[in-house]
Specification:
With about 260 residues, this protein is an alpha/beta fold. Helices cover about 45% and strands about 20% of the residues.
């Protein structure tokens, strides 16, 4: 497992400035959250990659700012738009290649759309295959406003698409009414990436150590499931006061991973 921080923690700071800030902490890994079409420019991406490489940081994943458009692009009844959506997301796959990232985080359709799972999985499979051909894993994230809001969705996706891969977001689990442990179990060995935050009663997104989450126990469950991906801190800007809290949270994640990996199998 690798500890990391998402550039999303500093939104709405410019992406390159957000990256520079967290690189100063000497992080193992990061997730890059795109915020504008111009950020898909190859020269811009090469510069970001160089900055990360110079600091010894791996860019594990990318997150499209067009997540809110995914219901329209991929799950409407207008198939030509779906085809266009596939072509459009190939720009993200190309961006991931330039950055050295292997995962694209995907939100998917709206929860209220109530699209049959079979139809959803058919569309996802085509997007997943397009990503695979370009060396990128399209990974479905649990999001309470989306079809992927509950563990049952992931249980069904694993049955229909054994090759499907998933992103677990702890705060989104809570907002959907489930524990991270429940969601992780549903994702099984398809879990490849984690968005981590702490929580307590009445507050579902806190810096690590500021809530009552049992991080060692959660990491132990991940490990038993065969997970060996990125554990990425993802907070919203109003969830912490100072950048030092990002560094402190990262150190706690890193320490917890180190202790977990020191335990016998």
């Amino acid at each position: 497992m690798l500890a990391g921080i998402s550039t999303a923690c500093l939104y709405p700071e410019l992406t390159e400035r957000a990256l520079d800030t967290i690189l100063r902490f000497g992080i193992q890994s990061t997730e890059l959250f795109f915020n504008a079409f111009s950020e898909l420019n190859p020269n811009y991406l090469r510069e970001l990659r160089q900055r990360a490489d110079d600091c010894g940081t791996r860019i594990l994943s990318i997150h499209p700012f067009t997540s809110a458009m995914e219901p329209l692009l991929f799950f409407s009844g207008y198939y030509r738009r779906f085809e266009d959506g596939l072509e459009f997301y190939k720009q993200y796959f190309e961006a991931a290649n330039l950055l050295g990232a292997e995962i694209l985080v995907f939100h998917g359709d709206r929860r209220e759309a109530q699209r049959p799972y079979e139809s959803y999985f058919d569309r996802f499979a085509m997007l997943m295959e397009a990503g695979r051909r370009m060396g990128v894993t399209v990974a479905q994230e649990n999001v309470p406003r989306c079809a992927s809001w509950q563990p049952h969705f992931f249980e069904q996706m694993r049955r229909a698409l054994p090759q499907a891969r998933f992103v677990l977001d702890v705060k989104q689990c809570l907002r959907g009414g489930f524990s991270a442990e429940e969601m992780a179990q549903a994702m099984g060995d398809g879990l490849v990436h984690v968005h981590l935050s702490d929580h307590c009663a009445g507050q579902d997104c806190l810096p690590i150590g500021k809530g009552d989450m049992n991080l060692p126990r959660l990491l132990q469950q991940f490990r038993k499931q065969g997970f060996d991906g990125g554990v990425i801190l993802e907070l919203y800007r109003n969830n912490y006061r100072d950048f030092s809290e990002l560094d402190e949270s990262y150190r706690k994640i890193l320490d917890a991973i180190s202790k977990q990996q020191a335990l016998p199998e």
